[in-house]
Amino acid sequence: MTKKIPLIVCSLILTLTTLLFSACKTVPTTVPEGISEAELLQLGQSSLDNSNYKAAEFYYKKVIELYGSDIGTVIEAEYELAHINIKRKNYKDAKPALERLLAYYDDPQTAALLPPSYKKLALIDLAKCEPKTEKSKAKKKK
């Protein structure tokens, strides 16, 4: 029994060390030359799914930088950047970004070119930016 204790302790230390190093999240500094907008968007989404917000921000900003002439792509990337702020509960930065995104939909020249789903998602996230009233806080407590 006493011989098993050091083995258990070593196994535990090894497991914790492995978890610690696998939890470290890297942030890219470059993207491969010739990467498509779909690939960049997917990298951003994968990073977001793994809660690596800094990497997701990098990829979405890169989408805007490289493919900013495509308004549909810009809308998607800008929404995702604002949504990262919502996930971080950083409503102060999310609100103007969402309002700017919704302004694209107010322009009749661009509105027809834009995916309607991002307007709906932006409105949902924008509602999260509004301060909660006392009445809604009381409902949550019940």
Question: Overview of this structure, please?
Answer:
With 142 residues, the protein is mainly alpha-helical. Helix content is 75%, strand content 0%. It contains 8 helices and no strands. Helix 2 (37-49) runs parallel beside helix 4 (71-87) and helix 4 (71-87) runs parallel beside helix 7. The radius of gyration is 21 Å and the shape is flat. The model is unreliable at 16-23 (pLDDT under 50).
Question: What is the number of helical segments per DSSP (H or I, 4+ residues)?
Answer: 8
Oligomer: single chain
Helix content: over 70%
Give the termini separation. Answer: 52 Å
Specify the biggest β-sheet: none
Mean of residue pLDDT?
A: 84
Strand content: under 5%
Order of helices and strands: HHHHHHHH
- pLDDT under 50 segments (min length 5)? 16-23
Over the alpha carbons, how many angstroms does the gyration radius reach? 21 Å
Question: In short, what is this structure?
Answer:
By secondary structure, this protein is mainly alpha-helical. The chain is 75% helix and 0% strand. It has helices at residues 4-23, 37-49, 53-67, 71-87, 91-106, 108-111, 116-129, 134-141.
Structural topology:
Layout: H1 4-23, H2 37-49, H3 53-67, H4 71-87, H5 91-106, H6 108-111, H7 116-129, H8 134-141
Which descriptors would you attach to this protein?
mainly alpha; flat; 142 residues
